[in-house]
Amino acid sequence: MPLLSLDHVTLRYTAGGTAAVDGLCLELAPGETLALVGPSGCGKTTTLRLVAGFERPETGTVTLEGRLLSGPDAFLPPDQRRVGMVFQDFALFPHLSVLDNVTFGLDALPRREQVARARAMLELFGLGGFEARMPHALSGGQQQRVALARALAPGPRVLLLDEPFSSLDAALRATTRSEVRRVLKSLETAVVLVTHDQQEAMAFADRLAVMRAGKVEQAGTPEAVYTTPRNAFVAWFLGGTNLVPGSAFGNGARTALGILPLQGEAKGPVLLSLRPESLRLVPDRDVVAVGGALRAEVLSREFQGPGVEFTAGCAGMELTVRGGPESPLRPGDRARLEVTGKAVVLEDPPPDARPPPEVPGVR
Ligand code: ADP
Ligand code: MG
């Protein structure tokens, strides 16, 4: 049985307006970390607010450990839900010490127990000895961990995190994230993490759900969703891709790039996703006039540290191609394009079948 489930939940902020969350179904297993990702405005924060009890769904139910939190005739207020939440700005009480910030939600307990629990939680986050500090005397990463300790001290059944790392700089974000993940896993806390950062989602979560317009487009392990996106939107949102129309004949498809091997099987007209790392550009001078080679021209080159991202013109298409940082290719160079990975068959109809796929800004 799932720990938390949202069953066909709909919420509109204005009567008769568009639904911010639209028939959303989502499940969270005990101890699981789920990342909700999707473009700005797709309903991620609203979903968390529905779970926390800050919003009441128009239709649908929210259930935690078999107990109905929100439903047609039920609505449990936030303080009775055993749900913890940390927001992006993780506002600590500035006039309270670290210890008093963490004991804040524990007022039902005797003071001695409050302090013991808060200390234990701070210790877990590597903040033993910081009890008397005031928030302004802490770094951003330390403040973030105090906010997490505060949310976890009352022992929530689920912890909701809304863009909790986005105000930290890149280096601090990566270390704070893995530290927080380690602590949450050791506590076996179930977590829903909202982020617009796909790398963060893939690194942090056991499972992720890609949202669009108030609905879940696809959910699964990061590996499964990344390697087999259902449609162009998911492929584009998680890592970027190239869309190539083709005609499938089993485990291959005829395309303008030649015959591409497919992951899985299909027949007839298809739209394929070919990831930038499934393509390779080889400088033309390496080639000893290979017959049938795909000729390409480098249109742009973006250095990204561990690699380079090229745009290349080939067979009448503009393709995104990943390369090693040492690649000598520059805009204007001629190159040969090699397909090194398999293409994924998308659910979207190919361009000659109507209507065309709706993909915001495919790179
Ligand atoms: P996300 O967190 O994915 O960026 P939100 O859940 O904040 O998205 O918003 C979903 C939709 O609901 C957006 O269209 C947003 O403009 C709208 N919305 C969010 N909060 C409110 C509000 N308090 N009143 C009216 N509309 C809102
Ligand atoms: Mg949001």
UniProtKB/TrEMBL annotation:
Top-level taxon: Bacteria
The ABC transporter domain, residue ranges: 4-238
UniProt GO cellular component terms: ATP-binding cassette (ABC) transporter complex
PROSITE patterns xref list: ABC_TRANSPORTER_1, ABC_TRANSPORTER_2
InterPro entries: AAA+_ATPase, ABC_SmlMolc_Importer, ABC_transporter-like_ATP-bd, ABC_transporter-like_CS, ABC_transpr_FbpC, Mo/tungstate-bd_C_term_dom, P-loop_NTPase, Transp-assoc_OB_typ2
Pfam families the record matches: ABC_tran, TOBE_2
Positions of the UniProt region annotated as Disordered: 341-363
MF GO annotations: ABC-type ferric iron transporter activity; ATP binding; ATP hydrolysis activity
Protein name: Iron ABC transporter, ATP-binding protein
GO BP of this protein: quaternary ammonium group transport
Pro residues bias (residue ranges): 352-363
Keywords noted in UniProt: ATP-binding, Cell membrane, Ion transport, Iron, Iron transport, Membrane, Nucleotide-binding, Transport
